[in-house]
């Protein structure tokens, strides 16, 4: 039974987390949000106030913190009395925020794997490089740490576990498919920080197949998927955090992640990449100025947070899990469909931030209730997931299943 | 009768000019080359020596000069005793070099229109903005100034005049077509300075039709051309210097310029332009660095001078001139085909630099002989052109004609 939440970060996902915490502050208690720039935190609290999102009267305070500094984060945890920390800051701060939680006993959550700012596209085993090295430390301290509890990773890990628990006897393959069939109306834009977005696709594509890591190039392996609501969509195999943790739990299964890309996105990406404009390595102009091309590309692209008001259409993210049931081949597709405009109307963010930001708040509620306050470090598929998915349904992210018996709520 | 040549500039075209002057130094006398960076001039002279290009023993000297400074150029003209100046420097130095020629009495030539570095894509009348304002000054000083005597503008202006002199009684249209059917083997590269190359296509497309300036967007008007040697090629209407001077001499005719672009070039150009990466206006990165995107694009693209050794294939540049002959409709296509590899073997440059660099040397020879030492300012179509075109044929740029009577040398 824990109370009082500290949100680390003040980007698009943090905005969703803030609104959803406010909508559940009767259970969650005092709310705090902290980032390097306090004005961004204040703007998020203003938007919460503007929507009258607080369920009951309560505290919501903004703080400035350098989240790379464990002692600063620990001091803030003590000062605020937060027992639950939702880390949706940059991927570089996971380890420092986790240290602060271990030091203070607060529960820890994040939505993406840790990255070292000096290394680009590290090779698997990803969680093994940082997070999982601290499992024993969490266990001895009795600290609850739930890794990767956004949508993907997060809810898609829960879908795999639900397939194991309720739909299949054996699992042969897990294909996670992430389709954004929405439109932002711009000639070109990325849905989150262009630097992070492009970095994700400039390295090797890793998948787990035939019991081993397999490598491909980006856009080398693509196929069409026939999906509920969004219809036929082309998606390409790419590396993603959850391929690692799921392959650890289901080593016998092929685990692949597929992301949808339109031809237009691929064309722009290919031109920029082949010209060298996505490079992290500085170049020198004829005038002698040293510049990182990717940072210039970021500077000319639309600010992702500016896209939300005009965003229309839907996302569909789910797991196609194949295996056997009662000795016969069987498959199940577990999925959610979210609407960009609905998300904007509710919390002022587009659908991609919404799907990432609601799950850690559902997890926080489960920790507050005691259901998920397990006192050690886990990935989502290691937890009982039905309650989590049902709570998500109540909070705006309903899950459905499509299999031989039809398409229905889970 | 003039002697001794001063070349201004040390880029790819200057390299061709230097080699061709050397091959004709019995007529041209002492040779000098000057640019801001003397080492570039020395490298060009080294390549001339390496090819044993000097026809007779003679002087070839390198100099450093700030060509934006008329007095510095005038001092160099006096110091070297040059009576002929071939300006193949940047488009920003035309007026300062012309001033130095007027001051010293030296003959002046260039291969492209003057540009003000602070203005991008000026509207017509282009020659009227700078060069033609100084016609009277040249006439009173008795200075020979031949504007735009490269290939296009230059030889294509001569083709229009040859059509007038020898093939047609009236001229209804002049379509200049510039096709580079060569291949540099890179994923993408521009054939000359990317900054200049892209600037040429980011503004309005101007043409002279129905007795007036007409405007279009880039890549708005395209058509296929069936051309000798290079075959069927798609080219797009674009603005170009010679549309202005030819429309002044042939105001009743439609005058259009067409440049060949492959789909790949257009795609890369479109992506870069729509993202804002071809902008001359600085942007500020998230880290606070102020950068001109176009200069970063230039920094990541291959250096155009590095393309020459691998360049293969041919260029075809010519004029389709339509009108009447003996009261009946008639048309003639006057053209040259050049080969990239032949150009590289002879002078160490690719074919595009070659076609631009040979004509001003032919003009210099005609000035040295007295044929074109006319003592005032002209564009090429105002001169007698048969001798010029025949000399170009002897120097490596043969002209041919294709009309109802077949395809043959002019």
Automatic annotation (TrEMBL), chains A, B:
Q: Which residues form the Saccharopine dehydrogenase-like C-terminal domain?
A: 150-396
> What is the top-level taxon of the source organism?
Bacteria
Please list the coiled coil stretches.
Answer: none
Name assigned to this protein = Carboxynorspermidine dehydrogenase
Q: Cross-referenced Pfam families, in alphabetical order?
A: Sacchrp_dh_C (PF16653), Sacchrp_dh_NADP (PF03435)
Show where the Saccharopine dehydrogenase NADP binding domain sits. Answer: 5-146
SUPFAM superfamilies for this protein: NAD(P)-binding Rossmann-fold domains (SSF51735)
| InterPro entries for the chain | NAD(P)-bd_dom_sf (IPR036291), Sacchrp_dh-like_C (IPR032095), Sacchrp_dh_NADP-bd (IPR005097)
